[in-house]
Design goal:
about 100 residues, alpha+beta, Alpha-Beta Plaits, 4-stranded antiparallel sheet, 3 helices, globular, binds protoporphyrin IX containing FE
Length: about 100
């Protein structure tokens, strides 16, 4: 199992638009090897500007191959097709799971 997260920092003014985008139709659950997804919005983060918001799009996959298949699929392109990237900063994080309870 792996955890792949996209960490998005954006101006607070963009929060509603970002959340709306994530609430659009999704077929993630149909992707082979997909385990789960959560969109997290930080309520406390050191170093975050007062006018900024931090979101983490956190996904779990059965394998890196499953994530990469989705990453290079049309479904990924469609999920990111709103074309309103705006002034976001995005950082990709990939974790292997060491302990799970
Ligand atoms: C420059 C890189 C990226 C940016 C700025 C970004 C931003 C966004 C935004 C704003 C949405 C909402 C839909 C929309 O408004 O288009 C979205 C959807 C999503 N993003 Fe990203 N994203 C990026 C790359 C990634 C990567 C590498 C991952 C891997 C974890 C990821 C995971 C997701 C997921 C899981 C969704 C929901 C898709 C669905 O439910 O079908 N994103 N992203």
């Amino acid at each position: 199992m792996i955890v792949v997260q996209n960490r998005i920092t954006a101006p607070a003014a963009a929060a509603e638009r970002i959340e709306h985008g994530f609430n659009q139709n999704s077929n993630l659950k149909d992707q082979p090897g997909f385990v789960s997804f959560k969109l997290l919005k930080a309520t406390q983060v050191s170093g975050l500007g007062q006018d900024e918001v931090l979101y983490v799009a956190s996904t779990q996959w059965e394998s890196m191959e499953a994530f990469e298949t989705w990453r290079s699929s049309d479904a990924f392109g469609r999920a990111h097709g709103s074309g309103q990237g705006g002034p976001m900063r995005a950082t990709l994080e990939v974790f292997e799971v060491k302990v799970e309870r």
